[in-house]
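Preliminary data (for renewal application), guanosine-5'-triphosphate complex.
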Amino acid sequence: MKKNKFKNLKGVVVALKANFLIVEIDYKDFKDDSLDQFYEKIRLLCTRRSKLDYQGLFIDVGDIVFVESIDYKNKRAVIAEVEPRISFLKRPAVANVTLASICISVDEPLFDMEQASRFLLTVECAKIKPLIVLTKIDLVTKNDVISYINKFKSWGYDCIPVSIQNSKGIDSLIERFRKTKLTVLAGPSGVGKTSLINHLIPTVSLPTSSVSKKLRRGTHTTRHVELFEIGNGSLLADTPGFNRPEIVCGPSEFAYLFPEFRSQLSKSTCKFRNCLHRDEPSCVINKDLERYPFYRNNLEEIISSHLPYQAG
Ligand SMILES: Nc1nc2c(ncn2[C@@H]2O[C@H](COP(=O)(O)OP(=O)(O)OP(=O)(O)O)[C@@H](O)[C@H]2O)c(=O)[nH]1
Ligand SMILES: [Mg+2]
Ligand SMILES: [Zn+2]
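Predicted structure:
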């Protein structure tokens, strides 16, 4: 087996800071034998070898890297190699995500089907496993929560309802995240992503701010992606909220980003091979499904953005 000379210097990029990268490594791997009982994670401020720039390798949060020239005293090092990624989420930009928790609040800001769907579609597009985290459930009744769970089930998604006000759902969330290598919390501004991290990881205390009373929207408090340890070697990413994720896909791929359409298409086939599930005869898609009108509206937009350029 080929020996990897960087074997013991492996770390993960936990944040970007101006032109630097913050890399977390296991300190245990580097100290002398006499201190072998001692174990901790340390964060190093890193630059990168210029050959990585020549190779056009852009490093992002979540990337697994190998560091060298470590200066423990000043906590500095240089990134020499980057491991190939298993996944990449473009916005928020995080590499190697294994679970994308889309945080959606029942209120403050109000639930918005189109917005929630846009977040889910970007995750589907990146072929990352999605999970819906329904936040602030203390603001609605139990029955409302049940109807949200049923709604998401009809879309084909699991949902964990939570509240930091009464700690509902927090244990299930911790359990789920500790079973996952890297979970990203993504969603609109103000839904409570950072508050959740503060609640789940007692040693973390990040700034949060209340939702604007006038606009009933978040105020974009988190500005950068950052990874935190949640136990069992698992990582959790806080990310800046944003309101309208772009859908980037071709017209024929679009239906496959909806689990409820995917399951119908896996069971039976439309008459026409290039069916876009509009008004074609013998189409197998059930047009009564809740997200069908959303599919249709956005399909028209996608089609018009893919029309070939017509020279005047
Ligand atoms: N009622 C209630 N309020 C909550 C809950 N979780 C968070 N909040 C409040 O929601 C507001 C926004 O929370 P943040 O954690 O800053 O939201 P965020 O999603 O990180 O927002 P950005 O960083 O802007 O993307 C804060 O005032 C929190 O106290 C909850 O479970 N119930
Ligand atoms: Mg935040
Ligand atoms: Zn069809």
